[in-house]
Each structure stands twice: as C-alpha cells, then as structure tokens.
Amino acid sequence: MTDLTQDEARIIAWLGERKDEMIDLLRELVDTDSGSYDKAGVDRAGQVLARFHEANGLSVEIIPDARYGDAVKARLANPAANDQRPVLLLGHRDTVFPEGEPTRRPFRIEGARAYGPGVADMKAGLVIEAFVAAAFAANDGLAAPLTMLTTSDEEIASPSSRPVIEEAARESRCVFNAEPSRLPAGTDFTADRRQSITSGRKGGVFLRADFAGKAAHSGANYEKGISAIVELGQKIARLQGLTDLDAGITVNVGLVGGGQTVNTIAPSAWCEIDLRYRTASQRDDTVEAIRAIVETPDIPGASGTLTIKGEFVPLEQTADSLYRRSLLDAKELSIFLWSQFVVLGARSQVLPDERQPMRVEQATRLGNEALPNASPKRNESACP
C-alpha cells in the first residue's frame, strides 16, 4: 500500500475505531419505517440522521415538503478552501417496504452480513456517508467544504426531491453516492478485497395508460357496450413487443386493472408500464411508440391516454477522470476495483446533465476496511 498522508491515516484510524457506532446507527435507521409514501416515517428516519450530524459538528438544514418526506442537508464548512464549491455526498432514506416491515423483520446480523428492510438500499450507504462527514468534522484534513444531502422519495422517481438534488449538484464540485453496486455471489471482501463502482445505468420512465369505453349490462345490452378491458388487452402484447434486448430497451406492463362489476361491460381500465433504456437518444422514440399504441383505438369508440408518472435519466458510460482517479486510490488501498453497467435507477440519475458525476457506489459490508475509499478526500483532486 502506498504511504498515506498524516490526514488520511488519522481519518482512516478514526473510522476504524467506530464499527460499533456504525452498526448502532445502521440498526436505528433500518428499524425506522420509511416507505416512500410514509411521510411521518421517512421524516423520523431523517431526524435520526439530523441528530447524528448535529452531534458531530455539522450544521443541518431541513428542506420541507408537504406531501413526501423532508430533505435533510448537512454541511461542514471550510472557510480556508480556495474553491468554496462543496463535495456532495448524496443518498436517500426511503424504502419500498410497507408500513410495519421493520417490526416484522427487524435489523439483525448473521456472520458478516446485516439484514433488514433497506439495509443495503441504501441505509448502510447513509451510514458510510454520515461517518465520513463526521470523520472530517472531528479530524479536519478535508480540502473542500462538504455537504451531505439525504432525500425521501428516490424509490418513486424523486417527485419532490429532483429540484433539490439538481440545485445541490449545480453548486457542488463533484458528487458521490454510496448506494451499493453488486458484487458476484460468494465474494468475500475481507479475503479478496474486491469492490465495484457503477459507471453506467439505464434510464427509466414510469407510465400509466388509462382507457375509456362505455358501460352496458353484459346480458341485456351487450351490443351497446364498449369494453375498456378488451381495448387494454389488445395492446399489452404490442407494448411488450417494443422490447429490444440487444439495444438495451425493455418495456413491461407490470400492473393492470379495470372494470365495474362482473355483469357490466367495462367502462374503464388502466395499466402501468415500466420502460428502461440505455442511452438518452432512445427515450423519446420509445415513449412515442408507447403513446401511439395506447392512444390509437383498436375498438371503435374506445379511447386511451398516456401519462408519465416519473422518470430518471440514464447515466451513460464515459471515460471519466474521476473514475480513473478512483482506480488509483483503490490500488493504494490494495482494493481490486472494477466498473459495471447496471439496470436499476438511482439518485445520481436526476442530476442536471452538466453535473453528471462519476458515481461511486460501494458494496457495503460490515468490515471497517470497506470505509476508507469512500472518503471524499481521496478523490478531491479529481473533482471537476
């Protein structure tokens, strides 16, 4: 391993002594209900982080939202820095789980792994970021101001947080996101010191199609009805048929519903559609192809409308200098690092185009050794 600077060695040592505190914070976060639509629960999880930040010397701003959870922005100032743009640590605390899931499945540790709702996506990442910020607050050594922004609605495409993220990103020099990448099954970090970072992700669009027909009694006036369910049914295979696996485009009709009663020709029906695509250039043509299928009637008198419920842009792979610097930093720490392209959506993908980051996502495990190369200090000189 290349010799560390005194600041780096001091910060890594400080982190290495706090495994129990990290687990305690992770336990508290995982055992706090925080489904995306549970504003009270997501806000309770935000308060857990806000208390931790304040106890460790960071200033905290709560950015309120009336419908979804509030955003929590913690700052560590550095008046001596020549460049006052902060390094941004970005993450989300909402989960996909229903209310009560932590009670049914509370935090636990088995061997070297932790389990519980949201433990990987992404409450362990929040613990990494929070302790990195606390380490710099306690030990100095950071060459830039530091901001940690935690949002509340990533799992539902950030309907309230997107402008908050974009504003924070525009004022930052670079962005780090500690939502975990995926390691091959059976990987043991302690043994082989393998880590991965995500340098590319698909974009996604969440859509809803609503269909209108005409109600009629299915026995007495069958010929007078127009079935919205039949209209929907004739479109599902064509929508799925837009999938092009070689091009990286998938279209999935994942939810359907409709009808009034079993003996009524259905006056209404709906479906929800998930679109994933690899490059920004694929988005508009595919959305318009979906729209044409939905809004062109198959049954005379029926109609359909398409609504975009949410979306995130792709993180397209580039030869990014920050990624190259991360490879060097990993080598200094004797960590084998590789890049991957993945499918799922993430926080970084709502950043404004001009601030697209090299997205560092660590495979989070409980060992102290997983933490040092999350340090913004080790990548600061490569920030744009």
SS-based structural class? alpha/beta
* Widest sheet, order of strands: 1-2-6-3-7
Number of helices: 10
Mean pLDDT: 86
Spatial separation of the terminal alpha carbons: 26 Å
Number of strands: 13
Strand content: 15-25%
**Shape field:** elongated
Q: Quaternary status of these chains?
A: single chain
Strand and helix order: HHHEEEHEEHEHEHEEHEEHEHE
Q: Largest beta sheet, briefly? A: 5 strands, mixed
The residue fraction in helices comes out at 25-40%
Rg over CA atoms: 24 Å
Regions with pLDDT < 50 over 5+ consecutive residues? 347-384
Structure description:
With 384 residues, this protein is of the alpha/beta class. 30% of the residues lie in helices and 23% in strands. It has helices at 6-16, 19-30, 39-55, 101-104, 119-139, 162-170, 189-192, 228-240, 283-295, 321-332; strands spanning 59-63, 71-76, 87-92, 108-110, 113-115, 146-151, 174-177, 194-201, 203-212, 250-258, 268-277, 303-312, 336-342. Strand 4 (108-110) and strand 5 (113-115) form a beta hairpin. Helix 1 (6-16) crosses helix 5 (119-139) and helix 2 (19-30) packs across helix 5. Mean pLDDT is 86; it is low at 347-384.
